[in-house]
Amino acid sequence: MPRLCVALFLLASAAFAAIDFLPTADQNGVSDHEVCIIGAGPSGVGAAHHLVQKGYSNILMLEKLDRIGGKCRDIERVDNANGKPVNRTYPLGQIVIIRDYEEIRELADIYGQKFELFALGVPQDFYVDFNAKPLFTPAPPSWPTIASFSPLELNSIEDIEEITVALTAATAYTAIWKSYVAIDEKTGEPDPKRPLGDEPTLSSIDFDRYPELADPANKFIADRFTEYGLGPKHIEFMQRAQFPLEASGYLSADFTPMAYFFKAFTPPLLVEGVLGTIQRIVGGCTALLEAMVDTLSAKGKLEVLLSAEIVNTVREPDQPSLVQLSDGTERTCDRIIVAFPQITADMQFLDLDEEESDVFGRVFIAPYASTLLDFSYEKMPNTKSSRLYGNLDTSVEPHAYRSVVGKGQPAVIAAPYGSQAGAGLLIYQSYDRQQGLWNETLKQDSVQIVTDMFFDGDASEYKANLTEVDFWTYFPHVSGEEMRAGFYQRLEALQGNRKTYFTGGLCNFDTLELSMLYSRHLVKTYF
Could you give the count of Cα atoms lying within 13 Å of 33 in the half-sphere of its Cβ? Predict the structure, then answer.
């Protein structure tokens, strides 16, 4: 999850004992670096870690922003709490960690990071308005630890029928999720020990065998539950349970292929959402990435250049690659790892060949904005009175509430510190899929909606209360039709072309855990 996706500590010197320089096998010239990683977000930093673990010791990381983190963006702010300064961390980027996120937990352990309970579920501190029915019901005071990610209507907790429906639906989904497994490369048979949702790459999915995984998530749920003999109430429950993904920038379940939701909407996430045991990294996921970069840099294995704008690259299969920067300097490297969202509008400096252009030309993003306001908690919208409440689709029988993506209305409004004095509000907005980058029209629309909702259209009040606004190039993805046509097999076949490799959310799914998991796969497989 955006966003709604997660103190710098140095690793003990024994963790990375002296590592010898590893020259690459096909080097014809002398290059400055073994590997150049373009992008200092989760996938780029994860790749650097695994390269060092494998023996690489001369890595260059180039980041066009002036900070480490990419879509991990945590704002450290000193709030005025009744005249007393209070340090608080606000997550504008990715947030959520669950207990089966093995990659993040291993890295956090290595780099000395801790976790804390992420409970936005106390009454009235979390509000979702996706131009649809209310997605979450605030927990009553008797359930103070239940997270708002819970799809259960907790104020009807004594309704035995609803509880039975929920348990039955969750059990059925778990069985369905586990039944989709990877194919063993040696035997050609399904491997029950490898659920597709746990695989590090979407290329593991055989869409000839499982074409339904390219169906929209809501259709997949309806079809599979019907096959299981379950009724409309079970289907509705499970479709509602997917709303957190929709509200977190992953588009509508009426469109997004189930193969993507399979990655994030795992049985453990469903269980932890209900129990309220979802966590986040103390200080945010930015703290983890900064600790990793600081440690690798201190060991002399990694050089990082921030505010580094690349204007051109020369990539040859039998020569070191040349990277030219806007300040006139040049660097050479044996291999390049592209670790930022792979859309053609942002990759012009790579001089893509015909196959690369065709593959990445099929990729869309879901623009996503996050805004931190110094604004009173008492101004939180009320789900029962909001003018944005509900969008009834009368084109179907029976009439149904639909998730409407593309209107730009706030998908999530959160008060992570509740009504504590001086605490601010976070507003997350989702826009419909597009192939280009954020443009000024979309940015102005995003700002105007927040201005209208909280400040009665007064732009000066918006600016006076604004701490930060970020516009994310979020959720790179393709359609279900492209999945069936072999997009992910073509993407995997590009790895190593002109000694260039690709990692990030497109290769698996755009969450902190899954982006970094693919980077582990990339280094293990190709380096």
Answer: 26
